[in-house]
Structure formats: structure tokens, C-alpha cells
Amino acid sequence: MIMLAQAPIGAARPEEPCPPVVGLTALGPIDLFARLDVQGSAGAAVRVRVQTSLDGGLTWFDVAAFAFTGSAVLGARLPAVATLAPQALTPLADGAVRDGPFGDRLRATIESSGTYGLGTVVTVLARVGGRC
């Protein structure tokens, strides 16, 4: 498993990227897991986007988008084969995934609204190409 993010959630925060994991090979299939552990009060929402880059990190685009309103574990499986039809690389709606292409790097972005209790944490993990 690869840790893409583990971040405390407190006061509302604008969308910001976590440091990328680079040098990945054999990208696909990709299993993604996102977990929000709410401690105490819950804010309005936490959004997590997993992104990849095909140009060495100059341009990033979404491959999965998760939305939380309380404690939960969410997952998605991204297939290894990209669709043949051209795709607009626009931001994904909450709960959506995109099937490739995947670059040699992944990152998570995190955004929250409202205020969460002390100790609230979001964690994002990836399993790439069936590796354990």
C-alpha cells in the first residue's frame, strides 16, 4: 500500500495538494481507499481527489473523487485499460472515477468545509498494479 495522504482536518481548508508519490511503474489497476475518522464535532464536508500527471507533474488531473459528510471508508478500483474514446480531463464529480491513462505519479488533494473536532484525520491509500 502507498500512503498518498494522512492529514488532520480541523477548520475549513481550501483544496490543497499533498506531496506526490513519484516513480510508480505498471500503473493499473489501481485500488484506492479513503478514510475519514471524525472525532467530536463534524463539519459540513471533506472532499478528496486522487490525481495523476502525464507530464512530470506540470499538469494534474483527477482519477477519483471522494466526498465525506461523516466518518466513513470509501474505495474505488481504477481499471488498467484506458478507454479508447478521448476524454476531457476536467475535475470529476464527487463519487466519480476515470479509467486512465495513468502517469508515473499520484497525489491526493484535500478540501474541507465547516469545523471538525480535534483528532479528525483523513487518510488516502493506493495499491498499484496489484502490489501488496
Give a description of the structure.
With 132 residues, the chain is mainly β. The chain has one domain (2-79, 92-128): Jelly Rolls, CATH 2.60.120. It has strands spanning 2-8, 13-17, 21-22, 30-37, 45-52, 61-68, 72-78, 105-113, 121-128. Strands 2, 3, 5, 6 and 8 form a five-stranded antiparallel beta sheet that branches. It has a four-stranded antiparallel beta sheet with strand order 1-9-4-7, with no helix packed on it. The chain is elongated. The termini are close together. The mean pLDDT is 89.
Class computed from helices, strands and strand pairing: mainly beta
CATH class: Mainly Beta
Low-pLDDT residue intervals, each spanning 5 or more residues: none
Biggest beta sheet attributes: 5 strands, antiparallel
CATH architect. name: Sandwich
Question: What percentage of amino acids are in beta strands?
Answer: over 45%
**Can you tell me the overall shape?**
elongated
Q: What is the typical, i.e. mean, pLDDT?
A: 89
Q: Please state the CA-atom Rg, rounded to the nearest Å.
A: 14 Å
The total tally of domains equals: 1
Q: State the end-to-end distance.
A: 6 Å
Q: DSSP helix count? A: 0
What is the CATH third-level topology name? Jelly Rolls
Helix content: under 10%
Helix and strand succession?
Answer: EEEEEEEEE
Annotation, overall tally of beta strands? 9
